[in-house]
Write a structure and sequence with these properties.
Helices cover 35% and strands 21% of the residues. It is α/β, with parallel strands linked by helices. Helix 9 (333-345) crosses helix 11. It binds glyoxylic acid and manganese (II) ion (3 copies). It comes from Ciceribacter sichuanensis. One of its GO terms (molecular function) is hydrolase activity.
């Protein structure tokens, strides 16, 4: 039996939730903002106080290393992210990062020597809501390079990605710099389920089998801005009319016809955005998810056809650009077994399940065996300030992680 301190973990979750705190209990700690930097500084400070080495790479991924008996062996990596949605919950990302740090501290408390180093990671910009795409830190780490086109990225507030990245790295001068990407032995991430099934079935641990595919599109429908009071129907080229007709058809078919499909429009911008002018253009994002890559292709084709048709009917044009394409992944079978065994050795019921949300583990899985542990969240709610995890469930997930870490690092 390898102990972790559940009270310390839950206290830390509350302390980190004060950074970027929102009135309804959630957090706004979007990637590379001051809140994100503050959370990184707090974690690094805790790590340095315990004598761990702290590193960051050119993507501002933050690593905390506890040495192993053989320092030449690739580290076992555990972690998640500290950035949040604009109105996010306090557990999405923080739970996995702070659980991983709790494992590291508990190994230290017990004076346990592991055969290989164990590293905690807090990946940069998992959410992708300020700078798309999501999982930028883990994606670049797995590729060993930062894509050149990221140099031009801008947030909706006009902030430049390279400038914000550099300022974030500079805000943590205590961290040693290291190159992007290095060999990893295995990767394990704890996360809240962000869906209802564990809670509904009263199962404390999800052994994640893989992650469904995600595609993000940006749709621009362009018409002609004109006077709201004087422009009769036959003179209008109204992109709102085209967009609303296309969306109405897509909402009525995509999810009703396929229970595995997900279709979300989360961001909408009208220009010029005046109460008494027909818009010139409208831009919206579309987030589609499906476990089957061919179905994602079919969904994208359907969406493209719907916007083109409705734009044509209104004398408008539609342009569609892919912002992000994340193929589904399957996690390492042996590592899934280890997590299932760890739960069962602690007498905790578990079930295998696919992740509906994407996670950094998808990219870690490209360079090392990876797996995830899910814990229940109340009413399946996430990307919402009301997100809540029972302290006992947070503790249970961390105990399973510790058990898995010990079996993977025994010499
Ligand atoms: C990431 O948070 C996602 O949208 O799945
Ligand atoms: Mn997350
Ligand atoms: Mn999230
Ligand atoms: Mn996520």
């Amino acid at each position: 039996m390898f102990a972790i301190d559940g009270n310390r973990l839950n206290r830390r979750l509350a302390e980190f939730a004060e950074i970027g705190a929102l009135p309804k209990g959630g957090v706004n700690r979007q990637a590379l903002t001051e809140g994100d930097r503050q959370a990184r500084r707090m974690l690094a400070g805790l790590a340095l106080a315990r004598g761990f080495r702290v590193f960051q790479d050119p993507m501002a991924n933050l690593f905390i290393r506890r040495s192993g008996r053989d320092e030449t062996l690739a580290p076992l990596m555990i972690g998640s992210h500290l950035d949040s949605q604009p109105a996010g919950g306090r557990y999405d990302g923080a739970l996995g990062t702070l659980s991983a740090f709790e494992v590291l501290e508990s190994l230290e408390d017990a004076g346990t020597q592991t055969d290989r180093p164990v590293e905690v990671v807090a990946w940069t910009n998992e959410e992708g809501c300020r700078f798309a795409p999501g999982c930028m830190g883990s994606m670049a780490f797995a590729a060993g390079a930062i894509p050149e086109e990221w140099a031009d990225k801008q947030a909706a507030d006009g902030a430049s990605f390279p400038q914000e990245l550099a300022a974030t790295i500079e805000s943590l001068p205590e961290a040693e710099m290291r190159p992007l990407g290095f060999p990893v032995y295995s990767y394990i991430e704890i996360h809240i389920e962000q869906g209802p099934s564990l809670e509904a079935e009263n199962i404390p641990i999800g052994v994640v089998t893989g992650i469904q595919g995600t595609r993000w599109l940006e749709v621009t429908v362009t018409g002609q801005t004109a006077h709201a009071g004087t422009t009769g129907l036959s003179y209008r080229r109204d992109p709102m009319r085209a967009l609303s007709a296309a969306l109405s058809g897509l909402y009525d078919t995509i999810m009703p016809e396929d229970e595995n499909a997900r279709f979300t429009v989360g961001r909408l911008r009208l220009s010029p955005g005046s109460v008494n002018a027909i818009p010139e253009d409208i831009r919206c994002t579309v987030d589609i998810r499906h476990p089957d890559p061919d179905s994602l292709d079919a969904l994208e084709a359907k969406i493209t056809a719907a916007f083109s048709k409705e734009a044509g009917r209104q004398g408008c044009t539609a342009a569609i650009r892919r912002l992000f394409d994340m193929a589904p992944c399957t996690f390492d079978a042996g590592l899934q077994d280890r997590i299932e065994e760890a739960a069962s050795s602690l007498q905790m019921p578990s079930k295998r399940m696919l992740s509906g949300a994407f996670h950094d583990a998808l990219f870690a899985n490209r360079i090392a065996p990876a797996a995830m542990i899910f814990v229940p969240c109340r009413d399946g709610l996430s990307h919402n300030e009301a997100e809540f995890v029972e302290p006992a469930h947070a503790t249970a997930g961390c105990r399973v992680m510790m058990q898995a870490v010990r079996t993977l690092t025994a010499s």
